[in-house]
């Protein structure tokens, strides 16, 4: 995971999972990317045994540290935020080596590596808005001319970073395309703008392909196009509707098949826009709105399925 000291304890979903594990009297260890290494064909970790607390002013303390093979663990959770760079790719390789020795990794590292959070959603075109992925400026311009009001975004962004809305006649179109494609050398995505964003970009969490029955609509601030909480959006809980459940019915079995045991999909209006598999969030907000225990349910699923 990311450094414990860097997280926001009031919002962090990984900490919610740690608290749920602590409540089940599990021994908990935390590791960062740099703590994993290979020695003589075995994947090891410099691991930090911790104790967590619901006290948000003093939410963890380190009890001990040592070095041990990953095969010593019953279960390893992969909960590392992007950027999804080459170091992240190498992390998945190391975890796959441990997985081949029988270690349960959730989510499965090969699937996390293979399922880009924006491109993966496009495997379900019946759920998605009109879209194009290209690095060809001519194709990107033609898409914008056809659909008029569109959203450009990078394939490796998170938290609403580097997302641009372009309307007909926007004189910034050229520089936006140049910037996102690095002058035609990098793939980027453009989608038809979905006006229902004013009512929120809903995060829906799925455990082993089954949706939590409530989601979090992240409503943009006035004058904003992005509903991401990291971009200042307001989170409002809502019950899933029939279209949400249809989308989950399409996506859920594929998540289950790929070992993406905990995932978050983003839905605007009637459309799926992203599938988050690296470090899906919003556990605490949905729990608070509907008195749920999503992290506890996930821990119980992992224990019942693998331990």
Mean pLDDT: 94
* Extended strand count: 16
Q: What overall form do the CA principal axes indicate?
A: globular
Question: Can you count the helices?
Answer: 8
Q: What is the string of helix and strand elements?
A: HEEEEEHEHEHEEHEEEEEHEEHH
Secondary structure topology:
Blueprint: H1 13-23, E1 28-30, E2 36-39, E3 42-52, E4 60-69, E5 76-77, H2 86-100, E6 105-106, H3 109-114, E7 131-134, H4 137-147, E8 150-154, E9 164-166, H5 173-181, E10 188-192, E11 201-207, E12 210-211, E13 214-219, E14 234-239, H6 242-258, E15 262-268, E16 271-276, H7 283-290, H8 294-306
Parallel strand pairs: 5-6
Antiparallel strand pairs: 1-3, 2-3, 3-4, 7-10, 8-9, 8-10, 11-12, 11-13, 11-15, 13-14, 15-16
Short note summarizing the structure:
The chain contains eight helices and 16 strands. By secondary structure, it is α+β, with helices and mostly antiparallel strands.
Descriptive overview:
The structure is a single chain. The chain is of the alpha+beta class. It contains 8 helices and 16 strands. Strands 11, 12, 13, 14, 15 and 16 form a 6-stranded antiparallel sheet that branches. Strands 1, 2, 3 and 4 form a 4-stranded antiparallel sheet that branches. Helix 1 (13-23) crosses helix 8 (294-306). The chain starts with 12 loop residues before the first helix and ends with a helix.
